[in-house]
Inverse folding.
């Protein structure tokens, strides 16, 4: 694991993108509910 | 029999001594921080506290040295894990208490246990003017607690034996990333430290952009990251994340605490080319489904009461707090009392459920975990299939967690046991609040926060709350974080005389 920096870094980026995707989902749902107000 | 009793004591004493020694050495970090900022009283406090820990640790290691070569069985591993968390609390509270920021030693112990268990509830006084040394210690403790004290000791001080794995499991981390438990512990630290660098840098830059001085932005970035990654919820200001009034700070913290709530086995898989695991894993799927469903309920409750004027506010308050609760972080973007005065019961129920479910198993998060939620759901679907399909048909159900696992009765039973234990603990915490005169909804909210090691507060957890309730909350935080078995083993060992069974 410790010798595979490139793959580790890609893994880290994938996790950040996934978590950011959750935020986009939250923003989208907020927007929908904001419209429904 | 007396000889065997001594051997058991020596095995437990030796490893606890090692862990206490590590905790003593770690006080160097806040001590150096205080030295840099010329906080001389705090430096003195840490020297005393460090000396006490090192002396007790050394005495235990020396007097119990013969326990080093003995076999550590399951009961020893469990007792070592539970005892070291409790003794660690008593010792790490010394600099807190000596700082003068706490009204009593009990309050200091409460905050240490809250930090260790990554809960994030606080009883500290005048947080906005707390020294940098104490703030460093608060956030460092929660960062260590997220990874686990046993994991830390295994990384640095304990040699690999079969007993190492038993202690590791005693700390409610039962996933081996690598065949060797010491390598597993080191991999956990490797991942956490890599994120520490990325996260601190990100929050440091955002801090500078929003106008904080460079050194202050760095310290806040470091501390807030430590609390986010460990799903702890501590912050250096009374207003918590609300203090920064920054959407970017909020977005960055959500990213880091969501990732912090992932299973270390998942991190390891994704970091080692098994990238699709993040989409296939049962815990991630379970988390995404429950988070989406509970977000909808929270929003419906907030919209019904017209709590926030626009969608940005709904996102920054409603979504942020729901995910903060679901990942068991406890960062807040509103004042505690606003839950009670503004949010209404629908949103509160959603957030209570989110706090109880929590994050992933073998992560820094609390709650009864998405893995168990997924397993119980799969078990439920399997039972329905059994009713609907012909009896002769053999049904094999699987769930995916790192690899495909055949769903067995023992998985469902074990998951159900832990979930029931969490619900019983939540009920006890709620009853405790109601007994001391708090409203039922508030008591349930605070109990869910304590049981799930979350840290969101509706206003019950303050220094003036009854001491008995503080003790109840300390015990719940401790028991829930270690997922019951270790503490139950310790209680059984101490009170019920089942030692005979274990002594060999």
């Amino acid at each position: 694991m410790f010798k595979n920096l490139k793959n580790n870094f890609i893994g880290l980026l994938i996790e950040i993108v996934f978590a950011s995707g959750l935020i986009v989902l939250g923003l989208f749902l907020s927007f929908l509910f904001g419209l429904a107000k | 029999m007396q000889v065997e009793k001594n051997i058991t004591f020596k095995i437990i004493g030796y490893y606890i001594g090692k862990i206490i020694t590590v905790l003593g050495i770690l006080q160097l970090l806040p001590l150096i921080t205080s030295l840099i900022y010329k906080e001389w009283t705090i430096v003195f406090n840490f020297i005393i506290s460090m000396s006490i820990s090192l002396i007790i640790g050394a005495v235990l290691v020396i007097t119990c040295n013969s326990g080093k070569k003995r076999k550590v069985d399951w009961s020893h591993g469990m007792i070592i894990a539970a005892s070291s968390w409790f003794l660690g609390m008593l010792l790490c509270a010394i600099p807190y208490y000596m700082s003068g920021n706490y009204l009593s030693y009990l309050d200091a112990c409460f905050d240490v246990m809250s930090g260790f268990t990554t809960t994030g509830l606080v009883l500290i006084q005048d947080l906005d003017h707390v020294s940098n040394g104490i703030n460093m210690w608060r956030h460092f403790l929660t960062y260590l607690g997220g990874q686990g004290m046993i994991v830390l000791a295994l990384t640095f001080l304990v040699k690999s034996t079969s007993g190492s794995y038993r202690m590791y499991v005693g700390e409610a981390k039962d996933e081996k990333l690598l065949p060797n438990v010491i390598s597993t512990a080191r991999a956990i630290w490797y991942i956490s430290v890599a994120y520490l660098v990325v996260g601190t840098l990100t929050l440091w830059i955002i801090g500078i952009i929003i106008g904080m001085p460079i050194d202050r932005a760095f310290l806040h970035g470091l501390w807030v990251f430590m609390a986010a990654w460990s799903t702890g919820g501590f912050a250096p200001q009374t207003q918590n994340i609300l203090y920064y009034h920054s959407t970017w700070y909020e977005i960055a913290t959500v990213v880091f605490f969501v990732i912090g709530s992932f299973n270390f086995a998942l991190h390891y898989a994704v970091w080692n080319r098994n990238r699709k695991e993040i989409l296939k894993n049962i815990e991630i799927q379970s988390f995404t489904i429950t988070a989406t469903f509970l977000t909808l309920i929270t929003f419906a409750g907030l919209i019904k009461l017209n709590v926030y004027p626009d969608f940005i506010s709904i996102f920054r308050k409603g979504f942020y707090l729901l995910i903060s609760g679901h990942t068991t972080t406890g960062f807040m973007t509103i004042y505690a009392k606003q839950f009670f005065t503004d949010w209404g019961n629908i949103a509160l129920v959603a957030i209570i459920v989110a706090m109880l479910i929590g994050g992933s198993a073998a992560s820094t998060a609390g709650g009864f975990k998405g893995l168990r939620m997924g397993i119980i759901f799969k078990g439920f679907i399997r039972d329905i299939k059994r009713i609907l399909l012909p009896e002769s048909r053999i049904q094999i159900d699987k769930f995916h967690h790192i690899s495909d696992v055949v769903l067995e009765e023992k998985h469902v039973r074990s998951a159900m046991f832990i979930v029931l234990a969490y619900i019983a603990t939540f009920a006890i915490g709620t009853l405790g609040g109601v007994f001391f005169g708090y409203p039922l909804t508030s008591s349930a909210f605070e109990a869910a926060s304590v049981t799930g090691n979350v840290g969101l507060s509706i206003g019950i957890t303050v220094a003036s709350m009854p001491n008995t309730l503080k003790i109840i909350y300390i015990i719940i935080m401790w028991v829930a974080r270690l997922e019951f078995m270790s503490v139950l083993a310790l209680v059984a060992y101490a009170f019920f005389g089942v030692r005979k069974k274990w002594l060999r």
About this structure: Residues 181-209 of chain B form the longest helix (29 residues). Chain B has a mean pLDDT of 90.
